[in-house]
Every structure is written in C-alpha cells, then in structure tokens.
Amino acid sequence: MNILQRFKIDSFLWILICVVITASVFPCEGQTKTVFEYLTTFAIGLLFFMHGAKLSFQAIVVGIKNWRLHLLIFATTFVIFPILGLMMQLLVPNFLSQDIYLGFIYLCVLPATVQSAIAFTSIAKGNVAAAVCSASASTLLGVFITPLLVGLLMHTQASTSMNIIDAISSIMLKLMLPFIVGHLSRRFIGKWINKYKSVISKIDRLSILLVVYVAFSDAVVNGIWLQVGFLSLLNILFFSIILLTIVLFITTYSARFLGFSKEDEITIVFCGSKKSLASGIPMASVLFPISIIGIMILPLMIFHQIQLMICAFLAARYAQQKM
After folding, report:
1. Residue in 310, 302, 186, 153 with CA at minimum distance from that of residue 237
2. How many angstroms from the chain centroid is the CA of residue 124?
3. Mind listing the pLDDT tens digit for each residue in 18-58?
4. What is the pLDDT of residue 4?
5. What pLDDT sits at residue 273?
6. Other Cβ atoms closer than 10 A to 241
C-alpha cells in the first residue's frame, strides 16, 4: 500500500485489472451472464439514486453564480475534448486501430468526474464550492450531451450506430430517473447519506466492477485480445498522456488569460481535465452493444488512472505554492 501511495497508483486500478483477468479466464455466459446483467442494471440505478440524494440544492445555488468559470469548464469538457478526439483520426491506422480510436472518441465526449475533481480542488486549495457545482452539473449535462455527441461523432461507423432518441430515453430511464428520485428523497435520507458516504463509494465501485466484468466477458468471447495487443496498450497509454497534457495546458493558460483568480484556476484545471469512469462505464452499457463495450471503455480505464496520477502531483504543487 505504501508503494501504491508513493507512486500515486489507485488501488482500485489493480482491482479492475483483476476483474479483467477474471473475465478473460472465466467469462460469464448463458444464464450466469443474464443474472450479472440484471445485477449490473440494479447497481447502476442504485448508484445514481445515491448520487442524487447526496447533491444538496444549496451547493447548486452557491456554485451556479460563477457562470464564467462553469462555461469555460463545460466548453473544455464538451467542445475542446471532442475536437481533440476527432483530431486523433490522424493516428488511424498507423498508431491506433479504428475501434480504439472510437474508444478515445467516447472518452472525449464524457462528462467530468465528480469525486476526484472535488478532491483535487480541495487538496490544491481551490474553489471547492464551484467544483462541487461544476462537476455535478457536468454529470447531469452528460446524460443528455454525451449520447448526442456519440450519435453525432460516431454515426458513420456501422459498428457503433445508434438511435439517439432511444439512447437518451434509455439513459433517462436507467440513470436520470433514479438520480431525480434520489434528489427528491434527500429530505428523508439526506442525513443517512451524509453519515455513510463510504456506502456510495462502495456502490460506485461495485457497479463499475460489474459492468467491466460483464463487458469484458462478452469481449473475450468475441476475441478482444486478438484485436488489442501489448503494443496497442502502450499506444493507448502514450496518447492518453498526450491528450491529458494538452487539456491541462489549455485549461491552465485559458484561466490565466481570462483573468480568473488562482482558486478559480485550480477549479478549472481539475474539473475541466477530468473524464468520469463512474459515469462513462454505466453509460457505455446503455449506449453500446455489449459485444463492443470492452474495447470502447479500454482507453477510458487507462486515461482514468493517468489523470489520477498526474493531477495528484499537480494538486500537491498548487498546495505548496499557496503555503
């Protein structure tokens, strides 16, 4: 554990790797797969219910006042990131396969992550209230914007063709409805949610593990490891670092050019550069056929760990500068 902390390696990454290995050796099929799919759907619905109950109306009101900050973060999340993703088409097929490129496109249209964006903003002594509002709003907007962008940017690809209306309807039913019900239930269960925040984290991770296991089980049956070799994994790692570096540069110097305070700059950097594994994997289970989810979320899983490691280092540097 000390080694993991020293090198900023999230222990959850190793659990994910173990799940992928388990799915590769013991993929679920038949009735077992059906049972796991039902469990996954339930866990995802419960997860969004808990997140809805956790979000307070006061946090929304406090954070929403800083509209210039939120506008820049949302522009980075839903405009700049997708543009950078489209530019990665230049890497196909010499460095990235078409399927992995589409995985990067999916990564780039996802909303920001909530937990780590707020945590890093707090560590770096940034505007935490704005971070709470921005990251939470990004998740809500992503329910609508992500499927629209997936349909817009991937509609020409037969393997990922989708009906946008059906995708949004499915997300509304499976993700947004539990979120709204949870938020409306906050007055009754809010104190319990605040007292047992660790429960949300466990449900969060359990839902991700279930989706990953089911997705990679199906992917293994369909020959994912014949499509993705060691060199492809290295390319995903390398280009994930490049992508994150470019976004961090853009968010940092855009904030300074536009005259934001140092606290707001920190919030923009850590909220604008994040992509949500917690939202991305459940959304993928709704947006894409189970047969391609494994390869679609592979860049996201790798990018997620890279953003944790690099942003942990940046947060520590910001904190030292403010001492």
Report:
1. 302
2. 21
3. 888 888 888 887 788 888 878 877 877 777 787 777 766 66
4. 43
5. 92
6. 16
Q: What is the DSSP track for 193-240?
A: HHHTHHHHHHHHHHHHHHHHHHHHHHHHHTTHHHH--HHHHHHHHHHH
What span, in angstroms and rounded, lies between the C-alpha atoms of 65 and 181? 25
Q: Which residues are CB-neighbours of 191 under 8 A, at least 6 positions away?
A: none
Say what the pLDDT of residue 109 is.
94
For the segment 85-131, what is each residue's pLDDT rounded down to a tens digit? 999 999 998 999 888 999 999 999 999 887 778 778 887 888 877 88
Residues whose CB falls within 8 Å of the CB of residue 156, separated by 6 or more in sequence, listed in order? none
Q: CB–CB of 162/154 below 8 Å?
A: yes
Q: Letter for the amino acid at 294?
A: G
In the block, tokens 């606290």 appear at 263
pLDDT of 225 above 80: no
Backbone torsions φ then ψ of 228, nearest 5 degrees: -115, 110
Q: pTM of the prediction? A: 0.76
Distance CA 154, CA 315 (A): 35
Using alpha carbons only, give the angle 107, 113, 115 rounded to the nearest 5 degrees: 155
DSSP code string of 140-167: HHHHHHHHHHHHHHHTT-GGG---HHHH
Evaluated on CA atoms 304, 306, 312, 315, the torsion sign reads negative
Q: How far is the C-alpha of 114 from the C-alpha of 106, rounded, in Å? A: 18
DSSP per-residue string spanning 290-319: HHHHHHHHHHHHHHHHHHHHHHHHHHHHHH
The helix (H) or strand (E) run that includes residue 117 is: helix 115-123
pLDDT number for residue 243: 97
Query: Amino acid identity of 245?
Result: T
Cβ-Cβ contacts under 8 Å for 242 (sequence gap 6 or more) = none
